[in-house]
Amino acid sequence: MELDRTDRQILALLSKNVRITNKELADAVELSPSSVHERTKRLLNSEVVSGAHLAIDFGQLGFSMKALLFVQMSEHEKSNLDAFVQDVLKFAEVRSAWMISGRFDAIVELVTRDTTHLHRVVVEKFSSREEIHRIETSIVFDGAEQHDLSALLALGN
Fold this sequence. Notes:
Oligomer: single chain
Number of strands: 4
Radius of gyration: 20 Å
Shape: elongated
Distance between the termini: 15 Å
Number of helices: 6
Structural class: alpha+beta
Largest sheet: 4 strands, antiparallel
Order of helices and strands: HHHEHEEHEH
């Protein structure tokens, strides 16, 4: 899908605030609300946008510990990495999983209540798996995420 400058502006504004009204979008990009509505609908129905998600504070829900598991698969199981990544997403504590290059084959992000819960998840749901050769666990102390796509979308021009 080819994106013009206005499409990029709309995506940038939506990345900052997915709840922005159509009128606010129209005012910001200096188009009529009906034109912006059609453009937004086209963007949301395209493969460019895959969904909108709530940002949840897991600490407020009792899951104050975030950890990253760096997973090295057994040599004979590396061909099943895609299946492994999809399978671990079924665990309630897993928030995301990625196939990566380098010394490890995958990174798994998870949230737990505390270190006891983290230990139990690592031992019961990961270390016991035959396809895993090695796991390194890192506790995340703090972090930030970038949701504003304005600068990134400007690179495409």
